[in-house]
Amino acid sequence: MKNAKILIAEDELIARENLVHVLTRQGADVTAVENGAQAQKAVEKSGYDVVLTDMRMPDISGLELLQVIKANAPDTEVIVLTGYATVDNAVQAMAKGAFQYLAKPVRLDEVIVLTQKALEKKRLKEEVSMLKHKLETSSSDRIIGHSAPVKALKRQIDQVAAVGCTVLVQGETGTGKELVAKALHMGSPRRSNLFFAVNCASFNEELLANELFGHEKAAFTGAGSAKKGLLEAADNGTFFLDEVGDMPLSMQANLLRVLETRKLLRVGGTVEVPVDVRIIAATNRDLVSMVENGTFRRDLYYRLNVITLDVPPLRDRKEDIPLLASFFVNKFATAFNKIITDIDDDVLELLQEYPFPGNVRELENLMERAVVLCNESVIRMAQLPPDIWSEHLLHATAVNSGCEFDKVVSLDDNERRYLRWVLEQTNGNKSRAAELLGLNRGSLWRKMKRLGLAE
Questions:
Q1: Which residues of 122-141 are buried (b: 16+ CB within 10 A; e: fewer)?
Q2: Domain span at 102
Q3: Closest Cα to residue 52, out of 85, 18, 88?
Q4: How far is CA 196 from each of CA 140, 181, 236, 281, 440, rounded to the nearest angstrom?
Q5: Which of 186, 335, 367, 391 could form a disulfide with 328 if both were Cys (CB 3.0 to 4.6 A apart)?
Q6: How many CA atoms lie within 13 A of 242 on its CB side?
């Protein structure tokens, strides 16, 4: 919280002074005003990271101040302070972009925690914004994350990109091997030339040969004219061979010749064509084992394995998940013309606990789905698929529903709290709640009626 700029709008003197005292002690640069009009002038004059505002003030209400702030400084996070009688208004404020609300009388330790979370959320948004500007012009900055494995990978990319040697990129499916290849291309002297990518597992042997090497006229039935292959088209650029471990042995021999001689022979041709292309190969398979059992050429392996870059799985870089999730939400919200500004903390917690067998690609798909299903400004649990929920429900029951299992309470009390929490997470959608609980809607209604939760 050090040096964070915070504005407090509170008409009660003692409450205002207490907030100033506790946040100043945390190292924040705090400005305090006693009404909404002063707060509006302060916001229009200077930028703030977080604003804490009372809901009821004599001139301009907290809700009106929120609208002014979001119009002038949409990245500023707003925390609403409200009496119990106005909690409904505070919920409305959250729907209009408030970060969170605190019911009065506020606990100062809660103020500190919530303000820190708001600052973290603002920092995350700023990082996403910077990433959007960097992605088209940088090399290693195309790899999103600040974890130790990602920092190490970025350093390797920066070292290798400009050299021009052949690179083998290894990693599980969905980790972003093609993104690493593009980063190497963008950081090389070839960046202004073409980048081509081919997945070797997507073609049979004949089609792959035609795609890579092209063909001469009349090389086969239907070949009415000569055609350049992608390797020839990528001359002076970069060529990415994804899933190179799936390349047939005969094609491996042809690729080895290109690497050794910098020349290729079109299908049906007799004259070699010179090519200057950088080869980057990738695989999720164990090429060493394949070499030992004879399914991958040893000489080609050594030609490809000049430099090896290992892309870490998402489970080894979990601290990057909030930034990645926010980036994808921003990406798809823009693509689908939606205004989604936040991801609920419970969602981020769940995502960091989930093992992600599909890695970054799976996270991207989850966030795309969530954006499609989201009808408000915040991604919530209800937008995640049931199989993600199922691994989280047991833990969530104890932690999030308020059940205290160290105390002797009735099963009905625990079940009531748990059902209430699930309904909150689904925004009252009973069909969705029933699906997550493995019940039909009628059974859920009867259970709610028995526990006094039915409307």
A1: bebbebbeebeeebeeebbb
A2: 5-132
A3: 18
A4: 19, 10, 11, 12, 50
A5: 367
A6: 20
Q: Answer with the one of 265, 291, 312 that is the final residue of a domain.
A: 312
> H helices of 136-248, where?
148-161, 177-186, 205-213, 230-233
| Gap between the Cα atoms of 220 and 199, Å rounded | 23
Q: What angle do CA 324, 326, 327 make, to 5 degrees?
A: 65
pLDDT reading at 408 higher than 60 = no
Q: What angle do CA 274, 277, 283 make, to 5 degrees?
A: 130
Domain membership of residue 128 (yes or no) is yes
CATH number at residue 11: 3.40.50.2300
274 and 368 part of one domain: no
Identify whether residues 164 and 83 lie together within a single domain.
Answer: no
Cα–Cα dist 36/268, whole Å: 80
Structure token pair of residue 246: 């799936």
Domain final residue pick, 296, 312, 328 = 312
Count of structural domains within the chain: 3
Structure tokens belonging to residue 89 = 């208004």
DSSP 8-state symbol, 320:
G
Q: Are residues 26 and 89 in the same domain?
A: yes
Q: Which two tokens stand for residue 427?
A: 């925004």
Domain at 416, CATH number: 1.10.8.60
Highest-scoring range by mean pLDDT, 223-227, 259-263, 266-270, 382-386: 259-263
Distance from the first to the final alpha carbon of the chain:
43
Would the pTM count as exceeding 0.70? no
Is 328 among the domain residues?
Answer: yes
| Mean pLDDT within 396-415 | 55
